[in-house]
Design a protein that fits this description.
Layout: E1 2-5, E2 18-20, H1 23-30, E3 36-38, H2 41-74, E4 76-81, E5 88-93, H3 95-104, E6 114-115, E7 120-122, E8 124-133, E9 136-146
Parallel strand pairs: 4-9
Antiparallel strand pairs: 1-2, 1-3, 5-7, 6-8, 8-9
Length: 147
């Protein structure tokens, strides 16, 4: 019996997978519990269309992420900070400040995607890592300079 899973089932498969299972397992367990439906021609075409649309969306998102990553890799940001007499920064540099500088360069990034060394409290050059997509990461070079 061929079925299409309606949700992820550990040890069996993932949502929208088309699987062959024993008749009793399909009819008596999966279908009554609304975990699967019978795979007929129309439902198979429906699942194939879902896969096609999903792969197109993922490819588009990944392409946009790669464009952003190229821009970020070519940037050298300067972040201005108030400094004391010993060249220590008042406070520290945060991901929000980096995101703000990226916005000034017309690159929109969520601050949760940016990771930096904790506690940047002195002037100098640093690197931040930005994960635009699970397969697309960029490294941003930035320098902390006095105001």
């Amino acid at each position: 019996m061929e079925i299409i899973l309606k949700q992820d089932i550990p040890g069996l498969g993932y949502k929208n997978d088309i699987l062959k299972v024993k008749n009793g397992y399909g009819r008596n367990y999966l279908i009554p519990r609304d975990l699967a439906k019978v795979a007929d021609k129309s439902s198979i075409k429906e699942v194939e269309e879902i896969y096609r649309q999903t792969t197109q969306k993922v490819a588009k998102i990944k392409g946009e992420a790669e464009k952003k990553a190229e821009k970020v890799n070519s940037l050298d940001l300067k972040i201005h900070a108030k400094v004391g007499k010993t060249e220590k920064i008042f406070g520290s540099i945060t991901t929000a400040q980096i995101v703000e500088e990226l916005k000034k360069n017309s690159i929109e990034v969520d601050k949760r995607l940016v990771s930096i060394e904790s506690g940047i409290k002195t002037l100098g050059k640093y690197k931040a890592k930005i994960e635009f997509h699970k397969e697309v990461k960029a490294e941003l070079n930035f320098e902390v300079v006095p105001e």
